[in-house]
Amino acid sequence: MSRLINSHLPVTEASIDELIKTEQKKANVHFKKMNRANNLATVILWTAAGLTLAILIYILGFIIYKGFRSDNVIESGIINTAAAETPTDWYDGDSILIVNKKIRLKEITITDLNSLLEGKPSNWGNINEQDLKVYPFVLHSVKGETGKNTTLKNTAAEIASAVEKQEGAMGLIPANQAGQIKDYNVKIIPVQPLSIAVNPSVLEIRDNRKLRYIDRDMMKNILAGNVSNWQQVNGINLPLRLVIPPAGSYEYKAFLKLSGLTAETLPKTGIKSGNSSDYIEKIRDYPGSVGLMLSTVAATHDMTMLNYQFRKTGRNLQLWFLFEEPRRAGRVGGISSIVINTVYMVLLTVLFSTPLGIGAAIYLTEYASQGRMVKILRLGTETLAGIPSIIFGLFGFIVFVGYMHLGIGLLSGTLTLTLMILPTIVRTSEEAIKAVPRSFRAGSLALGAGKWQTIYKVVIPAAAPGILTGVILAIGRAVGETAALLFTMGFDYNRVKNLSTSARVLSTHLYQLVKEGISFDRAFATATILIVIVLFVNVVSTKLVVRKY
């Protein structure tokens, strides 16, 4: 309008309408630009937030999934096909393995079975991560030499009775006497007896190529006669010769089952064998030959065995893992004592750090004059909060372990963690106290309360949610800390007896499991427990804050 007036043109109703329309168009264009910019900013922010949340959920979900579910790819010289009745070197005919109900075992390889009967190893921990002594029982008619701990019995019923009563016991009986054990509370464990025997030429290296393993699908195609050259299963350029086991043998029955064939549909290219000796000789003499064979037979005749790759899944984190004590550097048993050590560490760290941190925050905000010295103190506190934890560990080792002669133990580790999380507690507590309105202080002082009464009864309760949040964050860092404890707390997985005792907590136990390659399944289970503890502390603390304030 002003532009129209300043132009010294005659003002008419038409010119005013035209000017209004022009301004409306400009306003609409500006609004659309602003709206597009706002929408774009909203999309970017939502995308960033969603991506961050998705990454966090993926990380936690992956760790928790691996914690509760084991999923491993295994290469073994024995096929993961088990049967309750299996030929062994201990009896004529098939045998059955029975164990005590408390033994955590689903199946076992024929190699491990023979080792247990020979007394090597003498503990179940080498087989199923269970700290139990092995007590083998066999019949007097057993063939071959057994271990020193093996007990001989007269009947299968006597073996079953002994296995039922003795924790850690196992028994091997002939399959034709299985009827004698039906009234006893024992478990029958399937045995994996078969391997894939090949001619040594199959595993030769040619043109920088070598066959490492075959999987279930490859094996089925080989046994069904669908593979004519080892190149078809990632091997070298060598014709494949399938040797069919002797008719009626255990290997022959397994061959038909695994290949899906019948006696009438055997592959025409397969090489038939008359007996066990002929079968072994043909695999040994014919280049590129392959056949199913009992692992014990293959080992006895020094046959070349091909690795078999399979995927093994199952439950990982179970209740026994929480309640059993660890053994053999954490390779066997659970983590009960380690969880207790972690709780002791957290309680002592909170006991030492919380009063110091809150006290320092009160002094810096309520008593100290806000001059250069306080600014330097705040800068130092913020700098300490960003120092790598390994430096705190080295400091703790030199000061607490060395100069103060506290030794490597719970107290040294706790004091080191206290120094490490103090900056977090001080800064968060300081900000929480600053956030309390000045009117709260003025009202308290006006009613006649002293400065300390005002701080203790008014300021601290009002700042409590923020202070508690800082303490929770500090606890979360302390629970998951590893580097600061490597040189100060030690690695003893037994339950701590006093403050000078070396102690292993969940974070250092997890570090040891991964570093020494003990078990990634146990490492993920430990990580899951660690995450659950941190979440539990956060949730409980948040509930307490909401309920009280």
Task: Summarize the helices and strands and which ones pair or pack.
Layout: H1 2-6, H2 13-68, E1 69-76, E2 86-87, E3 94-99, E4 108-109, H3 110-117, H4 125-128, E5 135-139, E6 151-153, H5 156-165, E7 169-174, E8 187-189, E9 191-192, E10 194-198, E11 213-214, H6 216-223, E12 241-244, H7 250-259, E13 271-272, H8 276-285, E14 289-294, H9 295-300, E15 304-315, H10 319-323, H11 336-367, H12 372-385, H13 389-403, H14 410-434, H15 438-446, H16 451-479, H17 483-486, H18 506-515, H19 520-548
Parallel strand pairs: 4-9, 5-6, 5-7, 11-15, 12-13, 12-14
Antiparallel strand pairs: 1-15, 2-3, 3-7, 3-8, 10-14, 10-15
Helix pairs in contact: 2-19, 11-14, 11-16, 12-14, 13-14, 14-16, 15-16, 16-19, 18-19
Global outline: extended
User: In angstroms, what is the radius of gyration?
Assistant: 37 Å
Sheet bearing the most strands, described? 7 strands, mixed
Highest CATH level, the class of the largest domain: Mainly Alpha
Mind telling me which CATH architecture of the largest domain this is? Orthogonal Bundle
Number of helices: 19
Helix content: 40-55%
Spatial separation of the terminal alpha carbons: 58 Å
Low-confidence stretches: none
* Count of the separate structural domains: 4
**How many β-strand stretches?**
15
